[in-house]
Amino acid sequence: MKILFIGGTGTISTAISRRILELGWDLYLFNRGNRNSVIQTQGKSGTLVEITGDIREESVQAIRDKILAFGERFDVVADFIAYTEDHVAKDYAIFEGICRQFMFISSASAYQKPLSSYVITESTPLANPHWEYSRNKIACEDFLMAQYRSNGFPITIIRPSHTYDERNVPLGVHGKGSWQVLKRMIEGKPVIIHGDGTSLWTMTHNSDFARAFTGLMGNIHAIGEAVHITSDESLSWNQIYQTIADTLNVPLRAVHVSSDFLAKCGSAWGYSGGLLGDKAHSVVFDNTKLKRLVPGFNAVVRFDQGVRESIAHVLGNQALQKEDLEFDVWCDRVIAAQEKAAGEVIG
Prior knowledge:
Elements: E1 2-6, H1 11-22, E2 26-31, E3 47-52, H2 60-68, E4 76-79, H3 85-95, E5 102-105, E6 119-120, H4 132-151, E7 155-160, E8 162-164, H5 179-186, E9 191-194, E10 200-201, E11 203-205, H6 206-216, E12 225-229, E13 235-236, H7 237-248, E14 254-257, H8 259-265, H9 271-279, E15 284-285, H10 288-293, H11 303-315, H12 325-346
Parallel strand pairs: 1-2, 1-4, 2-3, 4-5, 5-7, 6-15, 7-12, 8-11, 9-14
Antiparallel strand pairs: 10-13
Helix pairs in contact: 1-6, 2-3, 3-4, 7-11, 8-9
């Protein structure tokens, strides 16, 4: 197949790009070319073609001309960096008539908050009053589905949840990356878990995501459909943090802090949206639709297995060990404030 990716080097898209080349398909990456080296091509049978450009800055016609220089039609086009309705409206103007399938990367955070049922299917309503990011993704979906219904634009909507790779350890409360939380654990400092840590969450390794995603590519049954891609494994946040501490071979010193309190105190890290609009809620995904569209698919990387690889990779790469002193100080202040308040109530 002939595939065009806008972006293609992020947490999700890197794994998909690598798998496409393993499958022997031809992959065209349209991006600024800053991170394409993460797409390993050695030993792969597919062809990688880099098209340098900026979809935000260049005109619709200029981009069409660049892309059409490589052929009149692509089997699949996927945009991994579209976040607003303006972005997908430009996608439609560029790719209408030159792709057999357009795949939009939405977000499972678009599902109703608070949930009427903790079990999420693709029919769960889309509504998120807490997070503008999610509302923008909903607007993107609405625009693209309108083009499908009115003009036959061959859209497939993908809704990832919390997907991770070897470059970052997935967490609930963190700063600019995962390193500062890992460092606090290693140094025996307390770490913050939102709520009481018993809400359920789903972590998906990007290699599992890539297998499901490529199963939907060129799949005529996926046209006009929205599909979430997640693992079937559910873990509490307490289990997630305990697994990370066990992998580091250190005790877990957890401090549970109300999500509402963290949202009020952590605006610098987007907690008002990312917690109240997503991670504070228990979610269990029903992947029946995905498994019907991609027969035989099952996520096979358990969290304890995947996070072990992530932690080993982060510990072995100094470039990923970036200090976040502002977040570190913030953690200490939040913990101290909670302890002080408790002391004042107790008297």
